[in-house]
UniProtKB/TrEMBL annotation, chain A:
Biased segments, Basic and acidic residues type: 1-18, 37-46
Name of one Pfam family that matches: QcrA_N
Keyword Electron transport found: yes
The protein, known as: Cytochrome bc1 complex Rieske iron-sulfur subunit
Subunit structure: The cytochrome bc1 complex is composed of a cytochrome b (QcrB), the Rieske iron-sulfur protein (QcrA) and a diheme cytochrome c (QcrC) subunit.
Compartment(s) of residence: Cell membrane
Region described as Disordered: spans on this chain: 1-46
UniProt domain Rieske: residue ranges: 244-334
Transmembrane regions: 57-78, 84-115, 162-182
Classification via PROSITE patterns: RIESKE (PS51296)
CDD domains: Rieske
InterPro entries (UniProt xref): QcrA_N, Rieske_2Fe-2S, Rieske_2Fe-2S_sf, Rieske_Fe-S_prot, Rieske_Fe-S_prot_C
Organism this protein belongs to: Streptomyces malaysiensis subsp. samsunensis
TrEMBL record, chain B:
Signal sequence region: 1-30
Residue stretches spanning the membrane: 242-261
Protein's organism: Streptomyces malaysiensis
Top-level taxonomic group: Bacteria
Protein name: Cytochrome bc1 complex cytochrome c subunit
Post-translational modification: Binds 2 heme c groups covalently per subunit.
Automatic annotation (TrEMBL), chain C:
E.C. number: 7.1.1.8
Matches recorded under Pfam families: Cytochrom_B_N_2 (PF13631)
Subcellular location: Cell membrane
Protein name: Cytochrome bc1 complex cytochrome b subunit
GO CC annotation: plasma membrane
UniProt catalytic activity: a quinol + 2 Fe(III)-[cytochrome c](out) = a quinone + 2 Fe(II)-[cytochrome c](out) + 2 H(+)(out)
Species for this entry: Streptomyces malaysiensis subsp. samsunensis
Amino acid sequence: MSSHEISEAEEKLPEARGAESAVRPVDDPFADPGLPPHEHRKQDIDERAAKRSERTVALLFTVSMVATIAFIAAYVAIPVDRYIYVFPIGHISALNFALGVTLGIALFTIGAGAVHWARTLMSDEEIADERHPIEASPEVKSKVLEEFHTGAKESGFGRRKLARNTLFGALALVPLSGIVLLRDLGPLPGTKLRHTKWARGKRLMNYNTMQPLRPEDISVGSLTFAMPEGMSEDQHDFQTEIAKAALMLVRLQPENIKDKRELDWSHEGIVAFSKICTHVGCPINLYEQQTHHVLCPCHQSTFDLSDGGRVIFGPAGHALPQLRIRANDQGYLEAMGDFPEPVGPAYWERG
Amino acid sequence: MKKLSARRRHPLAALVVLLFALAVTGGLYAAFSPSEAKADDSSAQSLAIEEGKKLYAVGCATCHGTGGQGTSDGPSLVGVGSAAVDFQVGTGRMPAQQPGAQVPKKKKIYSDAEIEQLAAYIASLGAGPVTPTKSQYSPDGADVAKGGELFRTNCAQCHNFGGKGGALTNGKYAPALDGVSPKHLYEAMQTGPQNMPSFPDTVMPEKNKQDIIAYLDTVNSDKSKSPGGLELGGLGPVSEGLFGWIFGMGAMIVLTIWVAARTAKAKKS
Amino acid sequence: MSTASDSGAQRRGKAPAGERVADWADGRLGVYSLAKANMRKIFPDHWSFMLGEVCLYSFIVIILTGVYLTLFFHPSMEEVTYHGPYVPMQGVKMSEAFASTLDISFEVRGGLLIRQIHHWAALVFLCGMFTHMMRVFFTGAFRKPREINWLFGFLLFFLGMMTGFTGYSLPDDLLSGTGLRFIEGVFLSIPVVGTYISMFVFGGEFPGMDLIPRLYPVHVLLLPGIMLGLLVAHLILVFYHKHTQYPGAGKTEKNVVGMPLLPVYMAKAGGFFFLVFGVIAVLSAVATINPVWTIGPYRPDQVSTGAQPDWYMGFAEGLVRVMPGWEITAWGHTLVLGVFIPIVLFPLVLFAIGLYPFIESWITGDKREHHILDRPRNAPTRTAFGVAWLTAYFIMLVGGGNDLWATHFQLSINAITWFVRIGFFVGPVVAFIVTKRICLGLQRRDKDKVLHGRETGIIKRLPHGEFIEVHEPLSQEQLHTLTQHDQPDPYEIGPAVDENGVKQKIKPSQKLRSKLSKGYYGEDNVIPKPTREEYHEITSGHGHH
C-alpha cells in the first residue's frame, strides 16, 4: 500500500497541525485524564469462568455443525412441494422453512461463537494507536511539484501546442464512434406512439370471453374491458399493442354526460375510454360507478368519465383519450377510427 | 357525508334500477314462472313478501322510503333485485349504522330467514338480479388459473393482486376479500354494491365468476398456501419494507450493540 | 495457504511451514510491510461503527445468492405457457423470465430460499447504508479527510438503489412491469429527446422484447461491478484514514483507541458476517418477499392496487404521486412537467445530502483534519439540517405509500396527498427549527452539568429547614467529554477598507458565506461552553470540593 509509505514518511515530521496538545495547564478542570486503567473481566482472572466461556463457544460451533447436517438432511428428505402449517406463519413450504432455519442457525452460531470468543477470551485491553497527518510535508510536496514540472517540460506538452491540440481533438472525437454504435438500440420514434390497433370498423372484443360486444350487454354501472377485433394473446406483438389499445367501457345515462363531444362519441350512453393512464401509462380502471370517477392505482390520478375523461386529481396532465364508437348493422359495437390523439403518457412531440 | 347521500339521490340511481330491471326481467320471469305453477308455492311467496314488507317498514323505510322509492338518505330499491338485498343485508352493510364515505361491512343483524323475506319484498318492487343458487356460485370444478387471469384483469386494480383491498378516492376503499363467502362474491360481481361496478353475466358469464371465486378460494382463504412464509398482509413492497426495517435492520442493530459492547467487568465501579 | 506447506518435507532447523509460505509471498507481494501497518490496526468499539459492516456483509450475501440465481434465471421476454407445478398459473401465458422465476420458486430445491435471501438482503443492504450514512452525517464523520469517502459511500447508496430497482424489474411480474411502464413515462417526459431515449432503451415501443435481456447484464454485471470497485476503495480509505472515534478520556485527534484487528476485530467482524447472513436466512425462512406467484405475470393492461417500488424508491414514488399534473403544450410540443419535475427533484433531494460535506466545509472554512466525532448537539445547524432532510424524506415516503396509509388509517387518499404536498415544504422547516432548539437546550444542559454537577434526585434537608437537591460533581472523564468540542468563530469578511485605504471588493459569495457561517457559529447558534474561570468560581463558591 502506498499509503503506508506516506504515513511512514510523515512519522518523522514535526507536528504541523491538528488537535490541541495533550499537555494542559495543571489547573485545567477539563483536562483529558487519559485512558482509564484497564479493568479485568471475570474471564481474565477466573480460569473457571474462562473455561465456561470456551465451552459456550464450542457448543455454539457444535450447534452449527449439527445445523449444517440438518440442512443437508432436509434438502434430501423433504420434497419441494410439501407444505406444512406452522403457527403463526401459515401454510408454508416445508423445504423453504427447514432450509432457511437450519442455514440460519448454522451461520448464526458460527458468528455468535466467534464473537463470544472475541468478547470473553481475547484481550479486551484498549490500545491507543497514533495518527499521522495525511497531507505530505512541504519538502515532499515541493519535490513532487519540481519533478512534475521537469516531466511536463520534457514532454513539451505546453510548448508543442499543435501536437497537444490535435491530441485533444482526436481524444474528443474518438468516443463519437461509440455513441454512433448505439443507434441500432431501437427504431426511431416516428409516429409509432400516435397509432393503436383501433381502426374504423373494428369490433370491440370483450376481454373475458373474447366475443364481440353488443350495446345491450353493457348495463349502467358495469365495467367492461375490450380490445380490438383480431388481436390475440398468441401474437408476437400482443404486449406492445395491448399496451396502447386497452379499452374500458362504461355506460352512463346520456343526460349525465356533461361533455358534448363525449356524448357525440358515445353510443346510447356507452363511452369507450383508453385504459392507459395519461400520466405514466398504468392501466387505469378503478372505476367508481356512483361518481363515474376512475382512479389510477399507481399515482392516484383521477379522471371523470362523465366529463370527457377530464383530470380531477393527481399528477396526470391531460384527459383520457376517448374512442368513438357506434353499433354496426349486425348490432355489434365497433370503433369509428383510431384514437384521435396519442394514448398514454405525454411526450415532447405529442403537441 | 351529506354529499354522498345526495349522490345516491342522483337522478341516475333510478335509471340504474330501471336498466337492471330491463336487463334481467327475462331471467327473473324464467325463475319465477315454474313456481307460479303451484298454488301453495305462490302463496308461500306472497307470505314471505308480506313478512318482508313488515321488516322493511321497521328497519329500512326511514332511509329508503316506505315503498322503496328512496329518499335523500338512501337510494331507491326498486329493481335492485334480491341478490343486492342478500349481499347488503347478508354482509351486515345494511342497515347502515352511520353515514360516511362508504358503508362498512359488519356483523349481520337479520337472520337468514328474515333476509330472504326482505329480499322477496324488494324483488317484488321491481325485477332485478336474483340471489344466486349454490350451483351458480360454487367454485367446484372451475378453472383456477383462468380465474387468476380474470381476477387480474377485472378485480386486482381495486382489490389488489391477492384480494387484500385498496384505496379509492376521498376515503372510499375496495374492501379486502378475506373470508367473503362465494355467494357474496358472486352477488357483488352481479350487482355492483356501492361504488363497485357490476360485472353482469352479459359481459362476465357465470363460468367466469366461478373461476374468479375458485381463484380467490385458492390464494385468499384460511387454507391458502404462502410458500415463502409470512404473507406480511400481501400488500407488496410497502409492508415488506416496513418488515425489513423493523425486523431486518432492527435485528442488525441489536447485533451491532452486542458485538461492540464491552464484556462485563469483574468489578464494576 | 497452508496447503502449500505439504509439498516441502519438514526438516529440522527450518522455519515453520506457515512462515515459509509467508516468506514466499513476501518476496513477491511484500506482505510483511503490508501486515506491519495493518495487522494490529486499531478499531474503536462502538455499535454505530458496525453499521457499515452490515452493508458490507449483506452486499456479500447478495452477490453469493445472486450468482446462484443466475444459474437458473432466463432473462428473456419470449412468451411461454406455464406448465409447472403451481396450479393457479397453469396454462397462463407469461414471459420466460417470469416462468423461470416460478421455476426457481417451486422446482429448484432451496431456490425459493435463495431468492428470498437475495431480496431480503437487498432491503437490509439499503436499510444498512441509509442508517450508516445517517450515523456518519450526524456525527460529522464526513469532515476532512473523509469527504471523498463520504462521496464513495453516497454513490454506493445511489447505485444500490439503481441495482435494487433493476433487480425488482427482472422477474417480469405485474409489479415490476408496472415499474418499468413508469420508467417509460419518465423517459417520454424528457424534453426533446424523450421518445428517442425510450425507443432506444426498450428497443422499440414499450414493453418490446429487449428490455429484460438488456437490464440483466446491467443488474448482474455493470452496476455490481462498479459498486464492488467503489466498495474496495471505500474500505481502503477507511483503513488509510483510520477510524474516527467518539470523544472521551484519552481520545485525541492524534490517536485512535480501540482493539487490534488481529485478533479481536478479525473475530468480531468475521463473526459478524455470519450473524448477518444467519439473520437474513432466518428472515427468508419465515417471511415471504415479492411473492411473484400471486402477483402474476406482467401484462400492460393489468394492474394491482398498491403498486409500489421497494422502500428505497418510496420517496421518489412519493414525489411522483403528489406532484400536480402540470403539462404545458405550445407550438406543437408538450412539456410534461408533472413527471419531469419530480424526476429532476429525485436526484436533487439525494445530492442535497450527498454534497453536504463540501458545502459545510466551504461555509465554515474549516481546513483541519477531524478524527474526533461531533456529538450531534454540538453541531446544531448540521443536525437540524439532517433532521429536516430526513423529515422531507419521510414525508415523501408517506406520499409513496399514500394508498396504504389511506386504507390502514381510514383516511382519504386525497387528504394524504394534500398533507404531503404541504408537508414537503413546511415539515423540514419546522423540523429544522425544533431540532436546533433541542440541540441548544442540550448544550445548555451540558453546561449546567459541568458547572453544577449531575442531579442526583436526592433531596437533602438543611439544618435550617431548607430543602436542596444534592448535585454530584462530574468525574474528570465526563468533564472532559462535555467540554472538549471546538467552538470556532464565524467566518468574517474582513474590513471593507484595508490598511492602505483601498476598498476591498466583497463578492456576493463572501456575503453569503459569512451569513451562513453565522448560522453555524453565530451567537444565537451556540451556547458558549463553560470556561475554566466559570467552573472555578462556581465550584469554590459551593464548596463541594
